[in-house]
Amino acid sequence: MRFRACIALLLYVSACATSAPSPREPAARDPRLANLQRAATLPWTDGGRCAVQEASEPWPVLAERCFHALDHDRIEFHDPTGRCAVASAGAAAMGLGVCVLAAPELVVGAVIVAGVVVVGFAIKETLDAYELLGDEPEVVMPAPETRPVSEAKPAPQEPSPKQKPKPEPKGPDFPPPEPPETSERDRRPECMPVPVPHRGGNNDHNKCADRIPYNSFSGWDVRVNGKDFDALQLAVRTLWEVKTDDFDIHSPRSQAFFAKVKLPEIRREARLAKECGYNFVVGVKSAAHKEALEKLDKTLTIAVMEWC
């Protein structure tokens, strides 16, 4: 109970912090992205899959739920501030470790990692997807201190997706991680992504959608909220709708008319995606098509699909 109280206190402190970020540490626009960048500085036995799954939660929650997936042979936890000592008194060493790791701000000397950290494949894939969409701000995240491998146990290589993660550590006083909580909208059956066959009649359109980087259901459409979207990047919760019209062959007047006619349907698709907590991207084949849509609605996210 005292350990849970510590996590709750850290969440409260994180939510109530009002100090402005310094120029060298600009704030991330997306807390999920900030969590992933912080998780990228740590060694994981599962390639960072747990961190990606829990990235939408506040950092203290992610730290608690994914602590078991860290490579504990390479990490030392210290409590220079003493704020975790009371909550962890009488608990296993892991209890102290979770409390230290869950702190909203990383204290110097609190987390020490042996050897060089290779970013987990799951975290790297998700960060690459953010970069593809152009949503990655310049964020300076504090990194744990590192020690040469010679001063600690040899650093194991980052496991590949086919390798099995290490068994979950079992401490006598450390409770097993609780199953991830599901938000109310994720419980709605219409918000669960369901792969469905591509609509026939336009093979070039379907091939273009299948080649979207990090498409979680390549070869399929994805039904969400009653709408069959062309693609879903599950790692960044982003639905895509692809427009493969030969926009550039028309006159400027026809282009403006065509974009205006298509706009209501695009806005409806964006609304359906947002209702279920997904981002929405319109994929187009030309910069002229992108510019025409942006003139009509600057709130849309539009990407030129260079692979088409």
UniProtKB/TrEMBL annotation:
Keywords: Signal. InterPro entries: DUF6310. Residues 184-308 form the DUF6310 domain. Pfam families: DUF6310. It comes from the Bacteria. Residues 144-207 are annotated as: Disordered. Transmembrane segments: none annotated. Residues 1-19 form the signal peptide. This is DUF6310 domain-containing protein. The lineage of its organism: Bacteria, Pseudomonadati, Myxococcota, Myxococcia, Myxococcales.
